[in-house]
Amino acid sequence: MFPAQALADEMLARGWRVSLSTDVRGNAHAGGFHPDVARQVVAAGSFAQGSLLRRLTVPLRLLAGVIAAWRGFRADRPACVAGFGGYPAIPALAAAWMLGLPRLIHEGNAVPGQVNRRFARRVHAVACGVWPTRLPAGTRAVEIGNPVRASVKSAAATPYAPPENGVAVGAAGGAASASSSGPIRLLVFGGSQGAQVFADLVPAAVARLPKKLQARLAITQQVRADAIGNVETAYAATDVPPPVLAPFFADMPQLLAQAQLVIARAGASSLAEIAAIGRPAILIPYPHATDDHQAANAQALVAAGGALMLREEGLTGEALAGHIAPLLTEPGRAARMAASAQGQGRLDAAERLADLVIALSEGERP
User: Fold this and answer.
1) In the prediction, which pLDDT does 192 show?
2) Is there a contact between 142 and 131 (Cβ–Cβ < 8 Å)?
3) Region 225-240: what's the mean pLDDT?
4) 164-168: long-range contacts (C-beta < 8 A, 24 or more apart)?
5) Residue 170: is its pLDDT beyond 60?
6) Of 132, 229, 317, 326, which has the most beta carbons under 10 Å away?
7) Percent of the chain, pLDDT > 90?
8) 7 Cβ partners below 8 Å, 6+ apart?
9) Whole-angstrom distance, CA of residue 353 vs CA of residue 361
C-alpha cells in the first residue's frame, strides 16, 4: 500500500483525480490514503489463502471483481491504470487490459510475485523498485525505485547520529555536537512474518553484549501481542532499560530517523525507507519468502555497504550479538554505513513513477 499511497499523493499534487481499486481486505489497510482518493472496492481472492471451500470460489469472486472494475472503468475511463501486485490488483489490471487502457505495474521486489509475473507482458511498462528485477522475457522494464511516503521524505532530513561519540553527521558531511552519554537507539521490526523470530533472537543477542552497552540501549521492538510478556521478561534479565514493545508502530519513519541501528526483515518497502532515511541495518530476510525474494531485495544495499545480511537458518543470539556490538561501538563504521544506505535511497521514486504514468497516458511507450 505504501508505494501506491505515495503515487496517489504525487498525482493529486499534480492536479489529477485518483481512484483506488482494491478488495475489502486491501481497503482495510488503506487508511493512509488522502480523503480525495476515491475508493472502488471489488471482489477478489487468492488460491493460497482460506478454507478449501473459499478457494474453490476464487474464480467466481475474481470474475465478479473484473466485471465490477470493467463497468467502473467504462463509466469513468482512467487515463492510466497502475497495479501494485497481489491478488487485489487482478480485477483492475484485467479490466484495463480488456479495455485497452494505458497500464503499468510497479514491482517493488527483485523477484516479482505471481500476479505481476503473469501481467508483466500484458502492460505497457513494469516500473521496477529494485534493479535489476527478474522479469519474464519481453517485458518493458523501467528503473524507478520504490516510492516512499511524505513522512519518510521528512524523516530523511534528520542527520544520522552515530552511537558512542554522539556526533550527528549530515548527508553533506556536516556535523553538530551532541551528548556522548545519551541512549543508543536500537529499532527492531519485522511484521507478522518476522516479529516472532526477532522476539527470540534479539533479546538473546542483547544479553550477550557488555553490560555497560546494555545500560545505554533504548530498544523499540515490534512484537506480536501474545509474545510481549515473554520479551519483557527476557529484557528484564539484562541491564537494558524497559524497552518499547508493540505489535505495530504508526510512526515508523520517525523511529527510523531516531535509530542508531536497525534490525529488520528485507521487504521492499522497509528497505526503501531504511535507505531513504539512511540508517545502518542488519537484515535477516524472511526465509520462506517466495523465490527467496527478500534476500534478493537486500543485495544492492548490502553491496553498497549500507547493511549486513544474515541468514535466519542457524542464526543464534551469540552470533547476532557479534554483529551488533561493532556497529554500536565503532561510530565511524556506523556512520559510513548510514551514508552508504542513504546513497541507495530514491526519494524521487514517486515523482519518477508519476512521470511514467503521465507518459503512458499520453501514448508514449518505453
Assistant:
1) 65
2) no
3) 96
4) 164/328, 164/329, 164/330, 164/331, 165/331, 167/331
5) no
6) 317
7) 85
8) 82, 106, 147, 350, 353, 354, 357
9) 12
